[in-house]
Amino acid sequence: MSVDALWSSGLRQKTSVQAPAFLQLRPDCPVAFCSELERGRKELERLTRTEVQLREALSREQVLLDQKDALIRHKDLMSRESDHRLMNGLQMVSSLLSLQSRQAQNSKAAEQLKVAANRIATIGSVHKRLHALDHVRSVELKQYLADLCQDMRGILPAEAGQHNLAVEGIALEVPTAIGIPLGYIVSELVTNSAKYASGKITVRLGLEPGKGYEVSVSDDGPGFRRGFDPKKSKGLGMKIVSSLVNQIGGQSLFGPNHSGRGARFTVLFTTNERAG
Hints:
Elements: H1 3-18, H2 30-103, H3 107-131, E1 138-140, H4 141-152, E2 164-169, E3 173-175, H5 176-196, E4 200-208, E5 212-219, H6 236-247, E6 251-255, E7 263-269
Parallel strand pairs: 2-4
Antiparallel strand pairs: 1-3, 4-5, 5-7, 6-7
Helix pairs in contact: 2-3, 3-4, 4-5, 5-6
């Protein structure tokens, strides 16, 4: 066999092993060989265009992610600025009412102005307490609720001086994504109990076997009316409670307290943060 024949045979053997199918040599058909090369060139161009399109799509997505992060930072900044202005406004109103109470000629009016000033100041304390966990990962729930209820004593209805507001139960560490909504729920339920009950209001945190944990607010008032359903209630407070219970993936129960009198509103929840 000649050198040229050996070279041609070796080239065909090497090509059949290493080259892609669309670039394999077809020495018996030069036209087909050129056609295969052209097809390979077009396929390479298509893949190149696809890669460019993917890179452009990734670039656009990165821009959108950067914009989203900027909006989140801006929202957080605006929220903190709003809270700061609210706190300053409440402090100013409280100071003005307190000043007015000292200048009032009528002793009864002076006392009412003083009560109003204290109540405004307490509203500021409760607001601050509820937002104190915004940048904290977890909270000891019982202590948090005890501190919150201590602040709330100053904004309960006027006859609330008769109330004995107590927080009982187990110590429990929870994510703030659950602790903050529970704080709002308890504040709404305690405020509602204070409207209708005049004795002891109890906030209790406990373990509910098989279901996780529970936080309840109970009182010795007249209890829930027949057919009461918090999800269908027209009151803003109950709408807020229902929305927050749903937010943490919890379940609400209501009925008389353990003594068979008054009202007891219970929220069942777990310490697992709800996705989305």
